[in-house]
Specification:
The chain is of the alpha/beta class. The chain is 31% helix and 25% strand. The chain contains eight helices and eleven strands.
Amino acid sequence: MTTDDEAMAPWVSILTPIYNGVEFLEECALSVSLQIRYNESTNSTITWEWIIGVNGHGPTGGRTFELANALAMKVRPHIDNCTIRVVNLPQAKGKVDALNEMAALATGDWIALLDCDDTWKREKLLSQKIVVDAFGDRVDVIGTFCEYIGELSGVGPRLPSGWIEHEELIRSNPIINSSVLIRRELAHWEDRFGLEDYDLWLRLSRQGKRFFNYSERLVFHRLHQASAFNGKGRQDLVGLRAFYGI
């Protein structure tokens, strides 16, 4: 078995912040461990590190940290050339702080986001790697389509595919959070308006960064009461639009 210290340098760092929803983490972990990691067209192997960041559970991380760490130990022996790290983030005040602390720990050229209650299809990372190989430094953020699971199943939102122009992006958020692949140097979130992901896309689009959506449902996005509660009362789309003058 390849140890964490011997693992190859990661192409992508997967970030999963956890405040609540740890009961879904095992399903999430299975989808990460089953990712197709060999690209036959380029004869290259996709390597990743997975950083699971526990926030809001005190100086030790409590039971949530224990459960996440136990799951990581269970998964590690079945994964070659990839690493899993569970970190407690006692100073993080919410998801934005947690993401920024985790991004500072990341070593991959790219960062992928995956909420602990969502899952990926096996070809998710491979499909995005093909986009990166095809477009090189002309693409900065890559999303995919998604399918809802949980309280609403079998359907997904209508999203633009291919290149996403600024005019499309300002109309609505076209990037599913758990589908995101973003260059590491661009991954910095701001805690304003309760819409940290859309805020980042608008900011990057104004800087001329390029967005692309892969037109396959490669993410299963879970809808449930806890996920709705997390954003309740905090999201201010009107304020965000006024801030950017749109």
